[in-house]
Amino acid sequence: MEFFWILFLAVFCAAAIKDIMGFGMSMMLTPVFILYYPPQVAVPLIVVLNLTENLIIFVLNRHSVTFEKIRPLILTGIIGVFVGTSLLSHLDAHLVK
């Protein structure tokens, strides 16, 4: 149960830093999550947390989004997800740590 509170505190602090600076949630959470989970579990959990927060931010700011400007980011992000997922599934956990 102790690890739950450590992870909760890490997620809270990382979300606060992301809200202030606009980035950094994954950088803050990855080392903490890898202490308790293998990378193949930790990374998808972090992606879900990051995606959830990004969707909330998008919904709150959707009126000021210009889709023509973010289209290249979306396309390259989708490619990056597939490349990163395939690398994560083939790399050794000790190498990732």
Word description of this protein:
The two termini are 24 Å apart. The chain is built from five helices and no strands. The protein has helices at residues 2-21, 25-36, 39-61, 67-90, 93-96. The radius of gyration is 15 Å and the shape is flat. By secondary structure, it is mainly alpha-helical.
Pick out its properties:
97 residues, mainly alpha, flat
Give a concise summary:
With 97 residues, the chain is mostly helical.
Structural class: mainly alpha
Major sheet, described briefly?
none
What's the pLDDT, averaged over the residues? 83
* Gyration radius, rounded: 15 Å
Task: Tell me the total number of β-strands.
Answer: 0
Instruction: Work out the strand percent.
Output: under 5%
Low-confidence stretches: none
Number of helices: 5
Element order: H for helix, E for strand: HHHHH
Whole-Å distance between the termini?
24 Å
What characteristic shape results from the CA principal axes?
flat
The percent of residues in helical segments reads over 70%
Topology, please?
Layout: H1 2-21, H2 25-36, H3 39-61, H4 67-90, H5 93-96
Helix pairs in contact: 1-2, 2-3
